[in-house]
Amino acid sequence: MEPKYRRVLLKLSGEALAGGGGYGIAPSIVSSLAEEIGEVQSIGCEVAVVVGGGNIFRGLAASELGMDRSTADYMGMLATVLNSLALQDALEKRDVVTRVLSALHVREVAEPYIRRRATRHLEKGRVVIFAAGTGNPFFTTDTAASLRAIEINAGVIMKATRVDGVYTADPEKDPTATRYAFLTYRQVLNDSLRVMDATAVSLCMENRMPIIVFDGTRRGNILKAVRGEPIGTLVAEREPVV
Fold this sequence. Notes:
This protein is of the alpha/beta class. It has eight helices and eleven strands. It is globular, with a radius of gyration of 17 Å.
């Protein structure tokens, strides 16, 4: 089956790489993710990835405990570099050529982020991992994902989470919570729904960048999302005509 999207940006949380432990990097989890990304690429879809760093260091949490916010955020950016290198290693063990492009200069382990270079890598069939967020404090990796997706002209942002979409309430706490199949950007912002932070959603709204929120812990869901199968919650300007 052909992919619905020619180019996608996959947003992974740092916790997704940690597995059940919540902290650190679980090689088996990273290996499984790499296998799925390789499968997506094999059907002709260009794949870019933004990964968070919460499994190693959370800048916002550290700042709330008294650390300087800018320093804490830069430390969080470096945590995303570690995760990006781990994912790159797992991908290349599967013969998937991968490049890490970092918004902070760490030239010994990653290329500097240049938009045209990133696009060229994708055109050549390489997986591109964007590390170090936007390179600026006070911005989340969700915002980085929105920014990079827009810059590379991705067809969609695929946000992999622990639940199968966006709910009226936290489904892990409220058994009566129901899942939205579709939301507009304005609904997400007005109702303060936990899709991405407001800056990231606003960027997507201004640039008409759709977001699919789905369960990234279930094997095969990334491929289903790329193929356009009804999965998770779609956030867009208007509901697609079936």
